[in-house]
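Changelog-adjacent note: as of this version, every example in the card shows the full chain rather than a window. The one below runs 613 residues end to end.
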Amino acid sequence: MTVAALLTIAAPAGAQYGATDGEWRSYAGDNGSTKYSPLDQIDADNFSRLEIAWRVPTPDARLDLEAITEELARRGRLGEVPAGGNPDYGVSLRLFKATPLMVGGLVFVPTPLSLGAAYDAGTGEERWVHDPESYLDGPPAARANMRGAAYWTDGNVERVYWGTTDGYLVSVDARTGEPAAEFGENGRVDLFTGVPRAERGTYDPRGRHWISVTSPPIVSNGVVVTPVTISDYSIAKEAPPGWVKGIDAITGELRWVFRTVPRGDDFGAETWGNESWRYTGNTNVWAAMSADDELGYVYLPTSTPTSDYYGGHRPGDNLFAESIVAVDIRTGERKWHFQAVHHGVWDYDFPTHSNLVDVTVDGRVVKALAQVSKQGFTYVFDRETGEPVWPIEERPVETDTNLEGEVLSATQPFPTKPPPFEYQGISIDDLVDFTPEIRAMAVEAVKDFRLGPLFTPPMNTIEGGIQGTIQRPAIDGGANLQGSGVDPETGLLYVPSNNSFSVLKYYTPDPDAGGNLRYSQSAFGSGRQPRLPQGLPLFKPPYSRMTAIDLNAGDTAWMQPNGNGDRYRNHPQLRDLNLPPLGGDGRGGPVITKTLLISALTAGGSDGGPRLI
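Full-length structure tokens:
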């Protein structure tokens, strides 16, 4: 697990939007999450000559993981590891996902085990490390990983913020790494405080923290807003809600709370039938966020309610689940919202930040917000008013399911523009047809599964009968946490995506173990699945792609597969075929410069590993 820097040469910034001064001050470059830099010294002619300037191991690598594991076992705090012994759920360094920040010649990066570090941007020399020792308090709500940190200055003090696996928000001096003593209690704020059913020292049924942090905070107008991950795999209908907090950037004092699961007389509480808001949780913001510093709005991409895949215990549309919510970052007041999935059971939560960009639509300048989604849609709004730039229609969808007690929404929102950037739904015509023999295998593989369009209801497996619903895009998208980027000079939005599927399986939790849900999801990929032998793909390509969307017109500008797809084309049954590029080499998040679109593939490098393109 290492941090690496490519050899680059800084140049003066000249654009009004995106990252400035050759720095990268926010997770996605700027608070508008453009992932755009106006630098142009690296171009198509010299990109292939870039070399790694330095590479260093992160400070996690110096920890004695064996001793930490033994101590957690002694204290009974190892938690339950899923069947199969997935090492990512232990004290693991495997999930290093952080996007470093670069400000004032320093690179800031958090690590999977919640340490923070700073390095000299030119040499890679370690400047400081701060270790909150979060790993000593047991396993996180999700796997141990951290995607980024936040930087902020008021011109006098400089601070770096990140969240921890045990549910704290940390603030340190950006130049020294020392805890910001005036922030909360010695540089940290307890995110459990005030959240129903999330008392510190209590744990989920697997012995894991109810609340952790896996994505970066965002800071605007002197307020820090941090995402939280709420334990997802509950066996009971009761869980902590993922309320969002605004925290003073200097003192750590609580400024406001936005209740993503409303209660009582709150707007939206009526969308929780049988007053299910009283016990339902999750509906958190686990992904990165965006903010408009001038408007003073922060945009919250929310997730699914308890549980992700069954909602018989929470009738209604369930606001503000699977929504974009614009909140005044100074007060926490809701300014507008849009719900993309009513009464979700497909895990189609918003997995990434919005992209903020000004575009010209039919001769009118629009301060736009574009939000990509797992289901392959791009939702585009006026980010001040919440009005859709192009109509979004409520269309009838199928609602019949054999999951007892489940009542699905009769309609779901469908944007009329832009077109979907990924395949949606399943039909026989979508199955792979490289050869007649492979086509026949694909038809046979799906014969006992339910096929249908986007939002086809999930089905419980019946022995000797239906084996479930094939859901496409899969529960991880479409688009996912890698997110999209936008060029503010052209209005082109660049979206990496996957063409994949899921089949959900269900079981009834044991009441003796505290279970009271009628259904919960079994291990992903368990039971009979519609898979072809020897790793052959089930559907037609491409299996991952990059799509450019013109936000001025609402049209697809171009699409190309992400990679050649050698892991498919080298299959014994395919290697002699004359196949086009198949994709399937990942969906790395884009970085945009004045002349380049840069992305990462999982294959094709000099050693067969990842590469930048």
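Structural remarks: Confidence is low (pLDDT under 50) at residues 7-16.
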